[in-house]
Specification:
Layout (H helix, E strand, L loop, with lengths): L12 E11 L14 E7 L2 E4 L10 E9 L6 E8 L9 E9 L11 E6 L1 E2 L26 H11 E2 L12 E10 H4 L2 E12 L5 E11 L4 E6 L1 H12 L20 H4 L8 H18 L3 H4 L2 H7 L4 H15 L1
Antiparallel strand pairs: 1-4, 1-10, 2-3, 2-5, 5-6, 6-8, 7-9, 7-10, 11-12, 12-13
Length: 325
């Protein structure tokens, strides 16, 4: 048997699941007289996390990101739809589930796949305890590869082609975006802050410009100049694309910022302490979002890495003028 990654390679692996929506849950409801309050549990080995519950809905939509570490010796992902208890039904009720071999994702390692899964009624034998979402801790393991025949067999039995979803009425369906991720595989840009400079903007106000050295995975390198306000605005836009971004640490605005006008670079956001702390914070921010494929596909981040920010263009123009003189 061939192996998909080995422990000696120290691959940091996890599963990212975007739970999109479900259809026709009335088919797998054990009590046809009760409209469920459905939520989704994603389990990998003894770890599990869940979405919020949608009240009284047979065709719920969640659009919620969940992620889990992949424990050693675990080769499959279990996704369950359950109904939250209510006044009429005290306990949570299992509606349906699907067990997904991680080998199904082997052909698109690191990339998200969108699939409609046919739900089996009921639930698997054992439900792991629900955990808080994973932040930045991974586990290395060995994975068994699926043969082409095994993968095709699973897809034909459990996955419904998207063009047939609207006419399919034999079972309840669940739509998921799934990515099997490696921290190494997703490190598309390595960003280091290699220096700072004080510049004056068009309104004669001084600001700190941060020099970011960007190294892409293919070896290409370049410099981007930016400032805190631009990175703060970039983070705000990225927060709208993923529920994970707001939990990624980012340097805070300085409460004593106004003191900079009294003491120059000695206080506030231009002090050496604050500038150094922010530089390390920016590096950590880019390192953390580098493992989020949804974020890396956003136009805002793409434009930033292309050097389209106003500060980068402003400083670049200054350097060109000084060179021409």
């Amino acid at each position: 048997q061939s192996t998909w990654g080995t422990s000696s390679q120290k691959m940091d692996e996890r599963v990212l699941v975007v739970v999109q929506e479900a259809r026709s849950l009335e088919i797998c409801c054990p009590d046809k007289t009760v409209v469920p309050n459905p939520y989704v549990v994603v389990a990998c080995g003894h770890r599990a996390t869940q979405t919020h519950a949608v009240k009284k809905n047979l065709n719920p939509m969640w659009s919620q990101n969940l992620q889990l570490q992949v424990p050693p010796q675990v080769n499959s992902l279990t996704v369950m739809v359950r109904s939250q208890g209510s006044v009429d039904v005290q306990e949570d009720v299992p509606l349906g589930f699907v067990q997904i071999p991680l080998g199904v994702l082997q052909d698109s390692f690191g990339e998200s796949q969108t699939m409609w899964f046919r739900l089996q009624p009921g639930s698997p034998a054992e439900l792991p305890p629900i955990q808080a979402p994973v932040e930045d801790s991974y586990i290395s393991l060995e994975k068994q590869k699926m043969s082409g025949g095994e993968r095709a067999s699973f897809l034909s039995e459990h996955v419904i082609p998207s063009d047939l979803v609207d006419v399919f009425d034999d079972a309840s369906l669940l739509k998921l975006d799934i990515a099997y991720l490696s921290g190494d595989a997703l490190q598309r840009h390595d960003v280091k802050c290699t220096g700072t400079e004080i510049h004056v903007d068009g309104k004669d106000r001084p600001f700190t410009a941060y020099k970011l050295h960007v190294r892409r995975k293919d070896g290409k390198q370049w410099i981007i100049w930016t400032r805190y306000s631009e990175l703060f605005a970039l983070r705000k836009m990225l927060c709208e694309t993923s529920i994970e971004v707001p939990f990624v640490p980012f340097p805070r605005k300085t409460p004593l910022q106004w003191l900079a006008f009294l003491g120059g670079s000695k206080f506030g956001n231009m002090s050496r302490h604050i500038v150094t702390k922010r530089a390390f914070g920016f590096e950590e921010f880019f390192r953390r979002i580098s493992s989020m494929p949804v974020v890396y596909r956003t136009p805002a981040l793409s434009l930033f890495f292309k050097g389209c920010g106003a500060t980068n263009q402003f400083i670049g123009e200054q350097y060109r003028e000084s060179t021409d003189m």
